[in-house]
Amino acid sequence: MTIALGRFTKDEKDLFDIMDDWLRRDRFVFVGWSGLLLFPCAYFALGGWFTGTTFVTSWYTHGLASSYLEGCNFLTAAVSTPANSLAHSLLLLWGPEAQGDFTRWCQLGGLWTFVALHGAFGLIGFMLRQFELARSVQLRPYNAIAFSGPIAVFVSVFLIYPLGQSGWFFAPSFGVAAIFRFILFFQGFHNWTLNPFHMMGVAGVLGAALLCAIHGATVENTLFEDGDGANTFRAFNPTQAEETYSMVTANRFWSQIFGVAFSNKRCYSGLGVGPGGEVIDTFSYFVSGVPHLISSAVLGIGGAFLLVFKALYFGGVYDTWAPGGGDVRKITNLTLSLGVIFGYLLKSPFGGEGWIVSVDDLEDIIGGHVWLGSICIFGGIWHILTKPFAWARALVWSGEAYLSYSLAALSLFGFIACCFVWFNNTAYPSEFYGLLDQKLLKLKHSLF
Fold first, then answer.
1. What is the DSSP code (8-state) at residue 287?
2. How much is the pTM?
3. 1-16 per-position pLDDT tens digit
């Protein structure tokens, strides 16, 4: 018996091969399979937005002028959300609301659902485009994974949040002033800036922006070529083939800025990676490790103080269910039972069980933070003392992988925080984060 090893080749191309060749052909604008989703959705979303901001009024839905035709400018023009009376209708052009009448469809706010839904799938198509191009040029896909963060934000704010309200009316309209109006509304009703997940997200975005600016400036300032120019920029030729910036110079600059000079002695070999895998430098590990160490320490100490010691001994925490209408009290009967704490994870998110969002006991919340804090602390010690397992190393190829997974995790945290603020009145009391359910809807109806 003979076994032939090798790649299977077909004698003639089938329809899929012909389509694949045409879609992935090297052209001025790459199409690809992802383009079948991206380009139509992006075309309809952008076309709907330009049409709405140019011609369509919001008088019938919000009592506002919102188009260039009515005298608005770029800041005040918007594609506004449908009226509150239309609830969560998809507002299809051929649906019972518009009945095929394009003018009526625009007046009812049909362009908003049109732009929102096509925009969401357009963003997904753009992420798939990044996957496809990365595969084509043999890059790792972490740009695409990181882009899941903006997609999660768009879906959470424009789709998930209004699904928890009485209609699309409470979603942001598509416009500059409209977005600012939504931010003020959201702060007024939900006190979102007091949400610790939002605080961590803002800190992460600002910190990432700072690191990007520092990195770009450092590379720009250490460009070099062995030329005869009077300074770095005159001597630099952008088409030269060899390395064009000096890691050693950058190392020396930043190490002196922080007041400590890090040498590159051969005895430190093994801590920094150079060409061909040779380990020559320590500074990159310092840059990566120290911020993680500091931020982990700050979060650990702050969490232990605010969510454990303060709750138990120094003043207590606010309990919205306390007798008399809510009061600050100390936690006297801490829940540390594994079955109770981790039992919330085993609950279904459907059928009224509510998953972890259903927690309604402050003792359980503080006990859960004790367990989470302990896991984080001992997990950090474990990672310091042990080498990652093979399956973990297989998932992480580089620093970009860590960043991409972190952005995906932040997106998940943001989604969970939305659900907590939306449903849970124990961790997020309505006195601080806005009223819940029918109370909130009645109040909104009275104001709008």
1. H
2. 0.55
3. 455 455 555 667 778 8
